[in-house]
Amino acid sequence: SSQAGDPFITAHFGSETPATKMSRQQILTLTAMASINFSSMICYSILGPFFPNEAKKKGVSQAMIGLIFGIYALCTLVGSLLLGKYIVQIGAKFMIVAGLFVSSGCTVLFGFLDQVSDGTVFVVLCFITRCINAIGFSAAVTSSFAVSAKVFPESIATVLGFMEIFTGLGLILGPPLGGWLYQSFGYEIPFVFTGCLLFATVPLNLWILPNAVPSSQNSFLRLCTRMKILLICFVVFSLSSGLGFLDATLSIFAIEKLNLSAGSVGLLMIGLSLPYGAASPVFGVISDKYPSIRKWMMVIGGMATAVSFCFLGPLPIFHIRSQLWLTVLMLIVVGFSLCMTCIPTFAEMIACAHENGFEEDLSTLGLVSGLFSAVWSAGMFFGPTIGGYITQALNFEWSAGVQGALAFLAVRTNSISSDRSALYSYKDTT
């Protein structure tokens, strides 16, 4: 392993550990990371089936609902950049534990906002709670990416693929659980239940996670001057934009156009989450075993994402009526294609950083994970806010088509860049 002798590995995971066998501490760390992904995604995804409609009852417009979803991502963007930069000074373990504590508290508080006045007061409190929640979330996720990459330097895509199983499970269980709890017990209980679930991971991670030993300092500016990094970031942005768009708009479309209940909308969203979680470990293993095909995974997955978004509505130019079976089928395709595209991106960003002289230490991993989380959050802000505005001005069908066009543009740009890089490499060898 290229990390042999690293103080972080030696101090916490033992020296000379075979690549094919994980130590007890590595298994525990993987368990901790999985708990973060699972509980955080449940808290994030429970809003989808019922909150947009609940906010609408309080006089909130579709565009403002999209902004409430989007502000979470915007604050995660800022938090990820700052916390990724200063992960060495703050400490990865402290960031994870403190982030989970803050996020769980804000999730519970969000459950009592239905008792405030309609209109401006409700919207302002939604913004404040979501902003603080997002900062806690960004601290936990940014640190977990960095720790995972540090602990498993030779198989990061495989490990991320494994962890995405739990991300998928959280996304799968969140909407139907939220929809069922909302229909059975009202607005407060879904948030109280999931907030307490997230809080339960605080002592678990406090006990399990090791304290990292950092070394060098690096610069975000230097990292962002690498064209390959920027192009991969564009792909990540397009993926998260599509997911954020669906969070803010799919439930209202399904209720109004497909005549589904809030509970049924939760089940509908499983069509997106289930294939994503199921395919993640497979694509993770493929990405680590055959690094040379990562770019083609991104290209093929991005093209499939673009096509499926265009038929999700579908686009009015196709003159196809909105039907439940078509929506479910396209959500399944989106789940697989997003997984195929997303899994290789983080490993490619780390590899690109190392190729450009960045040290193989926690500082570099903090910068990469912070940038990845920030770009993902930028897409999660763009998707619901712009998508919500277009949906309000036109309709869901055209807005979904815009997301498809964005995915196509991202994959096309990366495809052209890869072709040029291959051409220059061929010229250099000849």
From TrEMBL:
PROSITE patterns per the UniProt record, alphabetical: MFS
Domain of life: Eukaryota
Domain spans labelled Major facilitator superfamily (MFS) profile: 29-430
Keywords for this protein: Membrane, Transmembrane, Transmembrane helix, Transport
Compartment(s): Membrane
Single GO cellular component term: membrane
Keyword Transport: yes
Keyword Transport: yes
Entry-linked SUPFAM superfamilies: MFS general substrate transporter
Membrane topology: Multi-pass membrane protein
Primary residence: membrane
GO molecular function, one term: transmembrane transporter activity
Transmembrane segments: 27-51, 63-82, 94-113, 119-147, 159-177, 189-208, 229-255, 267-286, 298-318, 324-350, 362-383
Name of the molecule in the record: Tubby-related protein 4-like
